[in-house]
Give the backbone structure.
Amino acid sequence: MREIANSSANSAISVSVRSQAQQMKSRAIMDLLQAAVVMVCAFAFFACGIKIPSMRYIWFAAATLATALAFFYVMDMVKKLATAKITYENSNNRGSEEERDV
């Protein structure tokens, strides 16, 4: 009876961990989309800097800040994907160890 309860609990934990890994991947994709939007804005700021010479430095500064923000979004995306991969691999390793124990 105890083995059945342990098996059921381990199965629930495994499903939960996989679900969390999938949610982390979804958040990483959203970070990528946000980075893409910010880079489009950065290119628009750069174009404005070229077309409006009197405010060139302001537009270039805005483009530089937007590019830095996009970089941080991409770094956050990479971190989330790495975390999701490690979480998923650990859940798979844990599941295979449990199958060997039974």
Notes: Residues 41 and 66 are 7 Å apart (CA to CA).
